[in-house]
Design goal:
With 309 residues, the chain is mainly α. It has 15 helices and 4 strands. The strands form 2 sheets. The chain has a two-stranded antiparallel ribbon with strand order 1-2. Strands 3-4 form a two-stranded antiparallel sheet.
């Protein structure tokens, strides 16, 4: 190298940004993301796994191995890109803050959760473990293999509904959070009514459907879907009933297997989840929830009939 080049190098200014332990976590996360230029780019949860080492990170990994949780996600083992851990993190973030304190974007909302509980203490760990286990078990009890997935169909023009295979994060958030607020003895007896209510929301409530389809992490959509669902659960669970209002899922299946025809429109019901059991004599007029007062109908036909009345 010639002397002139050496002289320029010696006189050049070298700017350095020092990242210390106490530096802002969002800054660390952004720097790590910019350096993440390998052949396989890390996703946000994989970056958090590197940036927020501690007991909370280990705890999320432990919970991701829960068998019931893996069943609900359709997995046989934890996800190799940590997407299951991010779902658990979303649940805890809303559990700690509620949807009312969400400001967005989701990335920073979850980063802040990791930062606040990075060194999780034993008391918080015990609480989170219990509420996670309860919410997972209730999700499995009420929704089974269809938990956290959209049901599409059941409209006036489409009686051939179907379940999406992909996990819907918006549904995951409200189902898990909703169950975290109740004890098992409050939810289990109302399982069928809760399940039917969510099916109705997913097929006939346009505002709700919008909140679980596109750009689901916007603040206004999060607030709307949480409020709609929490209000619905409260109406089902929070109001005492002198006798069961909803027929059991087992009885609905029995009617559907015997004769899958809608008693209102007389058309075939192709999928059991497109149907519900209607009280022949309205419940609110004193109609009993007994087999002799039951008939199988399309969900749309039944709700449309109710509006006409």
């Amino acid at each position: 190298m010639d002397k002139e080049s050496q002289r320029k190098i010696k006189k050049a200014t070298l700017r350095i940004i020092e990242v210390r332990k106490e530096s802002d976590q969002d800054v660390k996360f952004e720097i790590f993301e910019r350096l993440n230029t390998g052949s396989v780019k890390l996703n946000d949860m994989e970056l958090r796994n590197c940036s927020y080492r501690g007991r909370y990170n280990d705890f999320l990994k432990e919970l991701s191995e829960n068998r019931d949780f893996q069943f609900l996600l359709g997995l046989k083992e934890p996800h190799n890109r940590m997407q299951d851990r991010e779902l658990i993190l979303r649940f805890f973030a809303f559990y700690h803050n509620t949807y009312l304190k969400y400001r967005g974007p989701m990335r920073q909302f979850l980063n802040k959760e990791m930062q606040n509980y990075q060194n999780l203490n034993s008391e918080d760990e015990r609480e989170l473990r219990e509420v996670f286990k309860k919410s997972v078990e209730l999700s499995k009890t009420v929704f089974g293999e269809h938990a956290f997935r959209r049901f599409v169909g059941g409209t006036a023009d489409d009686f051939n509904g179907k379940w999406d295979r992909k996990i819907n994060k918006g549904l995951f958030d409200i189902i898990m959070f909703g169950f975290s607020r109740y004890d098992k003895h409050q939810i289990v007896p109302n399982s069928d009514a809760i399940r039917e209510e969510l099916l109705w929301f997913m097929t006939h409530d346009a505002e709700f459907i919008d909140t679980i389809t596109v750009t689901t992490d916007k603040r206004e959509k999060i607030e709307k879907r949480f409020k709609k669902w929490l209000d619905a659960i409260e109406k089902i669970v929070g109001v005492p009933q002198p006798e069961p209002r909803a027929f059991s899922l087992a009885y609905k299946r029995q009617l559907w297997e015997n004769e899958p025809t809608c008693a209102i429109c007389k058309q075939k019901i192709h999928l059991i989840d497109d149907s519900e059991i209607d009280h022949i004599e309205f419940y609110w007029r004193g109609g009993k929830t007994i087999p002799s007062n039951a008939r199988l109908v399309h969900r749309y036909c039944n709700r449309a009939r109710g509006l006409e009345k």
